[in-house]
Amino acid sequence: MQRLTGADATFLYTQTPNAHMEIGACIVVDAEALPTGEALLRHTLDWLQPRLHLAPMMRRRLVRVPFQLDHPVWVEDPGFDVEYHVRHVALPAPGTFEQLGDLVGRLMSRRLDHSRPLWELYVIEGLDGGRGATFMKTHHAAVDGVAGFNLLASMVDLAAAAPPPDPPDVQWEPEPIPTDVRLVADATANLARQPLRGLKAARRLARQVADARTKHGSAKVVLGELGAPETRFNGTIGPHRRVRYFDLPLADVKAAKKRSGAKLNDLVLTVVGGGLRRYLERHDELPDAPLIAFVPISGRVPDAGGTDGNQTSMMYVALATDEDDPATRLARIAEASAAAKAVHADLGPSALVDLSALTGPALAAASLRLVDTFRLLERTRLGGNVVVSNIPGPDFPLYTAGARISGLFPMGPIGEGTGLNVTLLSYLDSLGFSVVADRDLVPDLDDLVDDLRAAWKELDSCL
Amino acid sequence: MQRLTGADATFLYTQTPNAHMEIGACIVVDAEALPTGEALLRHTLDWLQPRLHLAPMMRRRLVRVPFQLDHPVWVEDPGFDVEYHVRHVALPAPGTFEQLGDLVGRLMSRRLDHSRPLWELYVIEGLDGGRGATFMKTHHAAVDGVAGFNLLASMVDLAAAAPPPDPPDVQWEPEPIPTDVRLVADATANLARQPLRGLKAARRLARQVADARTKHGSAKVVLGELGAPETRFNGTIGPHRRVRYFDLPLADVKAAKKRSGAKLNDLVLTVVGGGLRRYLERHDELPDAPLIAFVPISGRVPDAGGTDGNQTSMMYVALATDEDDPATRLARIAEASAAAKAVHADLGPSALVDLSALTGPALAAASLRLVDTFRLLERTRLGGNVVVSNIPGPDFPLYTAGARISGLFPMGPIGEGTGLNVTLLSYLDSLGFSVVADRDLVPDLDDLVDDLRAAWKELDSCL
Fold it and tell me: Is the domain A197-393+409-461 a CATH 3.30.559.30 member?
């Protein structure tokens, strides 16, 4: 039994019926060497079983504390049943990336069962070009971007015929689900030991914000004070998602980086800004003020790596969508991004981590639920106009269940007031884009993908 | 805007997070004449669009009245989007009925979105033998068994190249979602007009039950007083389902009916009783008392046909699972079934229909939610040990979207305390069985299917 940290629990408290705070990844493989049909499902289960101990969250379920007196705990699930989690499905012909996106979009629209370990894995056959895919989803409370990458790492090998990992030192043992009496007793003891925990954290965060505001006051880049404009991406979201994947040649992106001297992250933000500008302009909805990107960054301290859990923080960057010229847009984004990073360095990585300590879990959950009820988030726009998450990936080939991986597409969550998420991962010779949107806010997601591609071409040609 | 009847609304009030009260049907077709891949999806949409007006619930969504002052209303959905409802997926090779059951089981485990019209349709490719399938699901609040059959009927043609039906006399018009103010005003006016509605209905039902009890007192067949024994099928259900389909040759079943002089429904109940006896005996869990089947029967008055909505009632029949000899079991079931029908005739079809009027919707929903919270249903066993629903189907071929239908498998809901549902439909030369079970209560549903088949063989050979 292990209690969630405040940061991990935050993703549970901020979850609403529609913003389920789930993340996923689609692994595209060359399926020619794999068995097909029922044999493929058995093959995948046989491959996965000796790897389950690499990611403890795969056999742990959440148990909530009565009256939310404290954060929930993880318990080694006594009802663990791997066949519940691993499912098998196929794409209809011809098996395009768009059909894969449609399927994954539906699977991302469905909430995980919180009475079981928080993951589902789909073995997907029938992608065109002799390819297949594995789609895995989990909850943001179980893994952040970096720990999610660790989970992904436990799902991959460095060779097609890699031997299974060493068995765990200690055999896995299920735990009994703790009784409500025990959970309440533990929580009460915790509260008695640390009565000032929430208060102290709140005071520390307030001081950091005040300090940062004094220093960078005029820039207004602190905690969303940039004032993101109203756009269609920021309405109230529903439970349904659209998903699209595409990629750019990494060599071209790196050449543009070299020619311009810009950072890869700023190039990416410029492509997203350019794509959104095109999309909104065509809809006659481009606001005067620039759109704001919510950019998660890893606040994990290096030696804490290898464990599950969250150490993510974030910064806000104006995307210069009011600027038509891509080179000028890049320059403005590079400047805004550098300023945001300076603020972030002063604020420290604890900003998001400590937010949940401000009011204690019960109050946080209750007030967030109220916010949901009154749809205030739609107006307060906590998260910027769009989430843009850029994760550096490996440049050497990876394998899963004996098949060579040809594409890796991680997907981040969308939330109330932020109905669009663009997550990027470089892998081998590609820079992959995973775009997740609310189904109704962005009915024409294919057009937005075209706009992102066009924005890249335009930027590339002028650098 | 149309208000739900008390009977339809009952299925909403009795819905719990795990007992979602959803029903579905799987239509198996010969797919050789159909296009494949993306062309099949377009073909299906083109076929469906001119038929939408045949089943008004397909474009109507529920709107709940604030504080549940009255039953919810149906509104012609202003956000109707047929592409949300129609989805496309394929089975992995080899495409067995078991793989179809696995897929449908997952789709039945997922709750419908109640902010949209209450249906989803999946075009499924890749069933073996050149076959395909259409799986459609909806909510029991929108259709009962008979109206569900009407919905199914609107999905089928009498010829492969049947022309589309006549267009509606009046073009479909979306309605604005009524404001909370209007909903409350309407509900208050209704309450003012009919202050005694609930009281009168409660008094009428109580009198009917008392009368029936006096007359058939010793038989104890009234409203679940049979005292269903404890079995694994009657624990607390989770959100997940298992689904299996199989069929028996209808000619063999009819021959056995003729030889024995028994009713088809009693033969079917004897097969189910025999299968459950075998299954529980092998698990060393066979109770001394006979299992009780909850048998929905149509209480619809003949001239009210053709409309959506519910007129279903039910009876309880002891399945003589304490009896080893199949012929004796059949005789006991025939007797119990005749007695239950006599009680039902006295009680009238209004029993279930009026239950929701007992306390008014707000109280009904609140008390049922309490029941769920305290898991009392697990002990009170409102629904018998198993639901057995036998629907006579057509003996002539039907077609859907230009393809000949080779199998029709409707599926009923399971509920708290009743984790197993067997629904039968005769079609052409087959008697199809659809078995829906809670995923955890019946982990070995394939074995139960074998037991049902074996029970039929045993019964057939001794008649």
Answer: yes
